[in-house]
């Protein structure tokens, strides 16, 4: 039994962000930025997002006053990178969960939201299609692109201009490897690092995540067993969620139920009731079974790549997966896709669960490591961010919490995850170097910004809407170079730790 869905996506004034971009001769302060920004979530929902509400409010006031005083006292001072401990909670929650793009003064002439058929359409420029959507005009452009590019090219492992014979040869290698009596995981990782063909991606992800055994004869029985196990979880936890025994999880269910309709509002497949109910069950069951972390906002994004990949196995190559009507599939087929998506997401989160436990220590540790890494490889950019009082936590928390899904198109996220699955601890460790390469990629653009406002606007709306697999390939190459240089030489990073604390 579901609450009426019309009650979930609320179109309150706070759902749309307004921003007046004012530049002055000096650096903009965090207080000015925060006062001119409305959060993308309803006020009533923020209670669940704060670790402790009273502490968060107190910390917010403290950090605003402290930062304002520091900005005035140190406007002409040296590069500083001091992060207020009291401000971490508010900075993380507010900036990491921000979904809409801040509008510049030039964008104010454009109506920010148009409502058609009950769906909110955001007219703004922002990071790519997929998780964060662009305007309907861009969707029309993508529709024209699909007349010349099939969905398998959009979501495939190779770039759209690769030689067809080369792709056929790569696919043959995958098929031969997967059809053997026992799949060599080392060889499978080697092949998958540079991308996986869409037609075998689902099987490859299952194998590399440990969901499927390497022995071919055992795979069918394992799939059947795991799918049945998930179905029993649904009966045990989700179907009884309204009973008193699970009353402590009613707020968890409420938050999930609110978050899902807001996810990718311009992607038709994610707005279908059947799909939203699938996501709801997956997230609720996972939260109940993992009380140490429970549900954390942003986890809903992590479901989408698995769902798309496993669904794509079942449709023809010429079908646009983003507009596919899942009701065409049988109930049993949808149950199988749902179960596989649950186990895929579970395997991912098992490796990064400290990112979502109380105070999210895993993310805070990675943010510090990223800061030290950038200081090491691009000190000019590091000092530029510090000079204008941009804290790494304010923009990289979302990168860690959502694995860059709100910064990249969905098609690029899927290609990125091919490499993550093929890397040892790809989601836990390699992602750090990807974020470093990603930030370093925008170095020239960021150095052109001369104040806090401009830097934060750019960092929250990175222009990745036209990125393709070739961009991801180059990003992976740079991330691998950084890993090769620093992963086995931790002292290269630790040597800067004391300096980072002092700054």
What's the alpha carbon Rg, rounded to whole Å? 23 Å
Distance between the termini: 54 Å
Shape, per Cα inertia axes: globular
Q: Summarize the main sheet.
A: 2 strands, antiparallel
Task: Give me the number of helical elements.
Answer: 24
Q: Assign a percent range to the helix content.
A: 55-70%
**Binned strand content:** under 5%
Order of helices and strands: HHHHEEHHHHHHHHHHHHHHHHHHHH
Low-confidence region ranges: 1-28, 36-53, 73-83, 98-150, 158-162, 495-503
Q: Write down how many β-strands occur, each being a DSSP E stretch of 2 or more residues.
A: 2
Strand arrangement, major sheet: 1-2
Would you kindly provide a written description of the structure presented here, covering whatever features stand out?
With 503 residues, this protein is mainly alpha-helical. The chain has 24 helices and two strands. It has helices spanning 30-35, 46-49, 53-73, 88-96, 136-146, 151-155, 164-179, 185-192, 198-209, 216-238, 250-259, 273-289, 299-312, 331-351, 361-377, 379-387, 393-401, 410-422, 426-441, 443-448, 452-460, 469-486, 491-494, 497-502, and strands at 113-116, 119-122. A two-stranded antiparallel ribbon has the order 1-2. A hairpin with a 2-residue loop joins strand 1 (113-116) and strand 2 (119-122). Helix 4 (88-96) crosses helix 17 (393-401), helix 8 (185-192) packs antiparallel against helix 18 and helix 19 packs across helix 22 (469-486). The protein is globular, with a radius of gyration of 23 Å. It starts with 29 loop residues before the first helix and ends with a helix.
């Amino acid at each position: 039994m579901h609450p009426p869905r019309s009650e979930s996506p609320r179109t309150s004034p706070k759902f749309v962000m307004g921003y007046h971009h004012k530049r002055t001769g000096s650096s903009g302060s965090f207080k000015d930025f925060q006062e001119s920004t409305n959060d993308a979530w309803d006020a009533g929902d923020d209670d669940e997002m704060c670790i402790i509400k009273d502490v968060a409010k107190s910390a917010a006031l403290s950090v605003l006053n402290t930062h304002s005083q520091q900005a005035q006292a140190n406007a002409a001072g040296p590069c500083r990178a001091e992060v207020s401990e009291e401000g971490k909670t508010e900075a993380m929650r507010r900036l990491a969960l921000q979904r809409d793009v801040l509008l510049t003064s030039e964008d104010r002439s454009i109506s920010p939201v148009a409502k058609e058929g009950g769906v909110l359409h955001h007219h703004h420029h922002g990071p790519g299609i997929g998780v964060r959507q662009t305007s309907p005009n861009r969707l029309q452009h993508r529709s024209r692109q699909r007349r010349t590019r099939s969905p398998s090219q959009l979501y495939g492992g190779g770039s759209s201009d690769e030689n067809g014979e080369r792709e056929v040869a790569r696919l043959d290698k995958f098929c031969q490897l997967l059809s053997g009596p026992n799949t060599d995981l080392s060889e499978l990782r080697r092949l998958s690092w540079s991308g996986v063909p869409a037609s075998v991606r689902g099987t490859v992800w299952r194998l590399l995540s440990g969901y499927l055994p390497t022995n071919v004869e055992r795979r069918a029985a394992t799939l059947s067993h795991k799918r049945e196990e998930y179905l029993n979880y649904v009966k045990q936890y989700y179907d009884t969620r309204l009973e008193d025994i699970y009353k402590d999880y009613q707020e968890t269910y409420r938050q999930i139920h609110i978050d899902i309709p807001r996810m990718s509002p311009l992607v038709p497949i994610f707005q279908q009731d059947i799909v939203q109910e699938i996501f709801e069950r997956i997230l609720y069951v996972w939260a109940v079974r993992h009380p140490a972390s429970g549900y954390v906002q942003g986890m809903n994004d992590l479901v989408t790549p698995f769902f798309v990949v496993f669904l794509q196995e079942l449709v023809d190559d010429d079908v646009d997966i983003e507009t596919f009507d899942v009701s065409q599939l049988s109930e049993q087929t949808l149950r199988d896709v749902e179960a596989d998506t649950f186990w895929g997401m579970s395997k991912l989160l098992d490796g990064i669960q400290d990112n979502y436990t109380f105070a999210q220590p895993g993310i805070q540790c990675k943010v510090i490591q990223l800061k030290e890494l950038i200081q090491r490889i691009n000190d000019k950019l590091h000092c530029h961010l510090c000079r204008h009082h941009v804290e790494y936590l304010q923009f990289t928390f979302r990168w860690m919490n959502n694995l860059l899904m709100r910064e990249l198109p969905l098609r690029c996220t899927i290609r990125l995850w091919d490499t993550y699955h093929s890397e040892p601890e790809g989601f836990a460790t390699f992602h750090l170097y990807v974020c470093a390469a990603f930030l370093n990629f925008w170095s020239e653009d960021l150095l052109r910004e001369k104040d806090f406002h401009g830097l934060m606007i750019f960092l929250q709306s990175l222009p990745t809407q036209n990125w393709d697999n070739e961009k991801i390939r180059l990003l992976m190459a740079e991330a691998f170079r950084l890993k090769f240089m620093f992963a086995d030489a931790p002292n290269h990073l630790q040597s800067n730790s004391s300096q980072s604390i002092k700054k």
